[in-house]
Specification:
By secondary structure, the protein is α/β, with parallel strands linked by helices. The chain has eleven helices and twelve strands. The chain folds into two domains: about 1-100 and about 240-340, 3-Layer(aba) Sandwich (Isopropylmalate Dehydrogenase), CATH 3.40.718; about 110-115 and about 120-235, Rossmann fold. It has helices at about 15-30, 45, 55-65, 85-90, 145-165, 180-195, 205-215, 225-240, 280-295, 300-315, 330-340; strands at about 5-10, 35-40, 65-70, 95-100, 115-120, 130-135, 135-140, 170, 200-205, 220-225, 250, 255-260. α10 (about 300-315) crosses α11 (about 330-340). The longest helix is centred in the last third of the chain and has 19 residues, at about 300-315.
Length: about 350
């Protein structure tokens, strides 16, 4: 019998506690040997008189190295830094990885989509360096470093090797931003030539690449891009397969990793028991796979495979929540998945 592995659970705000509870129930039913360490962030933390990103939550992730996070709300216009931005910066979670694939039972205008967005997570236009030069004139600094780019490029190529993917495509705008995107592109190309020359590789100017994405997303496999582009394109790609409610998300560094639902906290439906837990569940499966790669525990791997097969079967057989055209509530979908676990 495997020992239990500690995982920090940040339930989040709005629908976060509801979907988190459903996912915890499914992971436990699948036999995942996890011990949950409950921590706060977002409005849930503020309501308890804490900072929006409490130091104790950061320390818990640093101690246990893995977290599952529901959607957190950052108050708008009140001077609070985003929970997600703080997690990425303070834990050096430089790689955001978001798989996007078509799901049977979730019809869209596209079929057989199967791509992965790899996003540099700490630099670019989201570096947070903004200045008001004079009244009416504000600048935002786009930060690109060789070290930051090489580490995300290396992570993308390693992902392709581990998951037996086919090729890497880099989205950029180096034709216009010749220094910043130019440095990003040159740094990725160097890592490719020096360390991963056997992996097929190409580039796309981002506007043309986005056009091609919506023309035929099946032409793409693994996409790599800087922070702002990755934020936009990963949501665009999610829209190709049914939206943010059907895609997982992860933020990974050298030591720590946070897996999260990438959709919002949906306060309008909070407490009604109708939220779809699928995105957080899929993120939970990503978390289990990450843990298996780290510790080699076959019970962790078996749980991940069982859950993925179960939610795929549930969707294919029409057991879905209302947002996907079904009739199940949050708990009903969790039970439908648990019923199909092997």
């Amino acid at each position: 019998m495997s020992s239990k592995y500690p995982v920090v659970l940040i339930a989040g705000d709005g629908i976060g506690p509801e979907v988190s509870k459903a996912v915890v129930n499914i992971l436990e039913a699948a036999g995942a040997p996890l011990e949950w360490i409950a921590c706060d962030a977002g409005l849930a933390a503020l309501d308890k008189g804490k900072e929006v990103m409490p130091e104790e939550t950061l320390e818990a992730v640093k101690k246990h190295h893995v977290a599952l996070k529901g959607p957190c709300t950052t108050p708008v216009g009140k001077g609070f830094t985003s929970v997600n931005v703080q997690l990425r910066k303070k834990l050096n979670l430089f790689a955001a990885i978001r798989p996007v694939r078509s799901l049977e039972g979730v019809p869209t205008r596209y079929e057989n989509v199967d791509m992965v967005i790899v996003r540099e997570n700490t630099e670019g236009l989201y570096s947070g360096v903004e200045n008001e030069i004079i009244k009416g004139l504000v600048t935002s600094m786009k930060v690109v470093t060789v070290d930051g780019t090489e580490r995300i490029a290396r992570r993308a190529f390693q992902y392709i090797q581990k998951r037996e993917r086919e090729k890497l495509t880099v989205f950029h705008k180096a034709n216009i931003m010749k220094m910043s995107d130019g440095l990003f592109l040159k740094s990725v190309e160097k890592i490719h030539q020096d360390e991963f020359a056997e992996i097929p590789y190409d580039t796309q100017i981002i506007d043309a690449g986005c056009m091609k994405l919506v023309q035929d997303p099946t032409k793409f496999d693994v996409l790599l891009m800087e922070n702002f582009y990755g934020d936009v394109v990963s949501d665009l790609a999610a829209g190709l397969v049914g939206g943010l409610g059907v895609v997982p998300g992860s933020n990974i560094g050298f030591e720590d990793a946070v897996f999260e639902a990438v959709h919002g906290s949906a306060p309008d439906i909070a407490g009604k028991g109708v939220a779809n837990p699928l995105a957080l569940l899929m993120s939970g499966v990503m978390m289990l796979n990450h843990m298996y790669e780290t510790n080699g525990d076959k019970q962790i791997h078996a749980a991940a495979e069982s859950i993925k097969a179960a939610y795929n079967k549930a969707l294919a057989e029409g057991d879905k929540t209302g947002d996907l055209g079904g009739s199940l509530d949050t708990d009903g979908f969790a039970k439908a998945v648990i019923k199909r676990l092997t």
